[in-house]
Design a protein that fits this description.
Radius of gyration: 30 Å
Number of domains: 3
Shape: globular
Helix content: 10-25%
Strand order of the largest sheet: 1-2-3-6-5-4
Structural class: alpha+beta
Distance between the termini: 68 Å
Number of helices: 9
Number of strands: 23
Largest sheet: 6 strands, antiparallel, barrel
CATH architecture of the largest domain: Beta Barrel
Length: 435
């Protein structure tokens, strides 16, 4: 950092200037060292720091064996400044402070890579005994996919599309064991199915995580059987959360889907998407590709949806969703202007209300006409949902997610609506059963 100094001609002034510059320099060195130490310890979250420290080989730092006040510019060791040194008037030697924090730990590039590899390998080894290859026989031929052990009752979870129309199902483990399996229940809307392996052996369930904690940039690890290559591991990151994908049943969508760039290909369907703790955060389900091969955009059904669905599949063989009876889309700038909504209003615009559905019974309005805004055609006349039971709704995905995760058929919900023209009202709807 450039420093501006006035040079005086007298000896006394030069002495004062020298002492002052030394004080400033030592203060800046102490401050920069403290910032560097904090940066090293804060580059990852607390859990990440623990993982790296416990996984990477750490030798004894020569800096810790020396007086903490000594600084060797060529030693390559971490140095640290005490809190009292920053900004102090340091006129002589750097004081030794018994309460000074220990030096920040440093790692070589090889140690960092080794720690990363240790995490990936550890997750694979810990999860492998709970992952299965699924082979399916149908009237049309054969198919294969992946799955994982759900509980200690030998139940296995996979995608519904993997076992659709199955006449015979077999599950195989990495150690060579194979068992016949029967379909206990399936849900095409969430693309989730439950099998039971026919065996007296006790299978080892996989660890389940919380998909609500998934964030972009988080490590993502997929295990499955792409193209029949058994028990393949791929890794990447969580690329996005809160996506919606079309399910296999009448065009309904699955909310809160996790997007990942971990390679997912045909045969990965139904396998686990894991975080760095080896916990399942999603069930690998779809890829977006014209060639049906990985192009860096894969989607996993959130494990929290499976946690809702699987218990009902085990008990009843099916999961019953609540139903509002509308379709629509997000509010765009042009639509907000056309509907006379306040500037920047987010929400879920209702373009269609299903005849005889709960929304129609409650008096929700759909598109009635098309107008032009900035030379663009815009459908208007429908209601815009901006809240439900006190929870804000900023998009159609928000509305679908709330209904899926928080309601069941027969529940009465209160929708906060902005009508065409800008009037805010509330409308109560008794939810039905999704057809």
């Amino acid at each position: 950092m450039p420093l501006n100094m006035n040079f005086m001609n007298t000896t006394s002034t030069r002495t004062i200037s020298t002492l002052t510059s030394r004080k400033v320099m030592m203060g800046w060195i102490s401050a920069l060292v403290l910032v560097a130490a904090l940066a090293c310890s804060s580059a990852v979250d607390d859990d990440s720091a623990v993982d790296v420290a416990s996984s990477a080989p750490v030798g004894t730092s020569s800096a810790t064996a020396q007086d903490n006040s000594s600084v060797q510019g060529d030693s390559g060791q971490a140095i640290s400044a005490s809190a009292t040194e920053v900004g102090d008037e340091i006129m002589g030697d750097v004081p030794v402070n018994a309460d000074e924090p220990p030096p920040a730990e440093t790692f070589t590039a090889d140690e960092v890579v080794a720690a990363f590899e240790s995490i990936i390998s550890g997750v694979f080894q810990d999860s492998l005994e709970s992952v299965v290859e699924i082979s399916v026989s149908t009237a049309a031929g054969g198919a294969s996919g992946s799955g994982f052990v759900w509980d200690d009752q030998n139940h296995i979870v996979t995608n519904q599309h993997v076992i659709a129309d199955a006449q015979r199902v077999e599950v195989s483990f990495s150690d060579g064991r194979s068992y016949e399996a029967v379909v206990i229940g399936e849900d095409a809307d969430a693309d989730v199915a439950v099998l039971e392996a026919i065996t007296d052996d006790v299978l080892v369930p996989i660890k389940l995580g919380d998909s609500d904690t998934a964030v972009p940039g988080q490590l993502a690890i997929a295990i499955g059987n792409p193209f029949g290559e058994e028990f393949t591991l791929t890794q990447g990151i969580v690329s996005a959360v809160g996506r919606s994908i079309r399910s296999g049943n009448q065009g309904f969508t699955t909310p809160d889907v996790i997007q990942t760039d971990a390679a997912i290909n045909p045969g990965n369907s139904g396998g686990p998407l894991l975080n760095r703790h080896g916990e399942v955060i999603g069930i690998n389900a779809q890829i977006r590709s014209d060639s049906r091969q990985n192009s860096g955009v894969g989607f996993a059904v959130p494990i929290n949806i499976a946690k809702l669905v699987v218990p009902d599949l085990l008990e009843n063989g099916e999961y019953v969703y609540s139903w509002l009876g509308v379709s629509g889309h997000d509010v765009s700038r042009l639509l907000a202007e056309a509907l006379d909504l306040p500037d920047g209003t987010p929400g879920a615009y209702i373009s269609d209300v299903i005849d005889g559905g709960p929304a129609q019974d409650a008096g929700l309005e759909e598109t009635t006409r098309t107008i032009r805004v900035d030379s663009q055609p815009v459908d208007v006349g429908g209601d815009t949902v901006v809240g439900i039971d006190g929870s804000p709704i900023r998009s159609m995905a928000d509305l679908i997610s709330y209904l899926t995760n928080n309601t069941r058929p027969g529940d009465v919900v209160t929708l906060e609506i902005i009508e065409d023209g800008g009037k805010a009202v509330e409308k109560e709807v008794e939810l039905g059963v999704r057809p």
